[in-house]
Design brief:
Residues 13-32 bind DNA. This is HTH tetR-type domain-containing protein. This protein is mainly alpha-helical. It has nine helices and no strands.
Length: 184
């Protein structure tokens, strides 16, 4: 993860990964056929963490607004605690050829949308969210807002270097994205 974040996908070599991991060059090839497969593995690991967090929010206590707010806060906290992971996922995976091929990445993305859409659907049915909210569009809107906000943080467009700035970003996301789903 660290090598991809520092050197970028195209600048990263398997030898760099081996050196960072403290293993022999050939050992990396024992587990991964090439750099694409290594990047896909890194991405799959990070998506697994995110999917678990979405499920925990969805299955946890609280109203739909609280669950969606928890997802927003979690995503921003990941940037605070693991900026290299966020950088790789957002700036290296998306522009990489074949990164969004059918398989685990696409399936997990669809699963993320489905989990968030279910929160929206349940929230609308209980009157916690707008009755006219379209669950899939609301889910992709929330996930898209998270992606672009985190990308902007990685690029330095949105400040997130201090605890105060991180908290400001979390409040703004919750107010603007989750607040937009509040009943009228």
């Amino acid at each position: 993860m660290r090598v991809f974040a520092e050197k970028g996908y195209h600048g990263c070599r398997i030898a760099d990964v081996a050196r960072q991991a403290g293993v022999a060059y050939g050992l990396v090839y024992h587990y991964f056929r090439n750099k694409d497969e290594l990047l896909e593995s890194v991405c799959a690991e990070q998506w697994t963490i995110f999917i678990r967090a979405l499920r925990a929010a969805s299955e946890g206590p609280g109203a739909a607004t609280e669950q969606l707010a928890g997802i927003c806060r979690f995503a921003v906290d990941v940037f605070r605690t693991a900026p290299a992971a966020v950088r790789v996922l957002l700036l290296e995976v998306v522009p990489t050829p074949n990164a969004f091929r059918a398989g685990s990445t696409r399936q997990t993305f669809e699963e993320a949308v489905s989990i968030v859409a279910d929160i929206v659907r349940r929230g609308a049915a209980r009157g916690e969210l707008r009755a006219d909210a379209e669950p899939t569009v609301a889910a992709t809107t929330l996930l898209g807002a998270l992606e672009l906000t985190l990308t902007s943080m990685v690029a330095g467009i949105v400040r997130g270097g201090t605890e105060e700035e991180i908290e400001r970003v979390k409040r703004a996301l919750v107010d603007q994205v989750v607040g937009g789903l509040a009943p009228r």
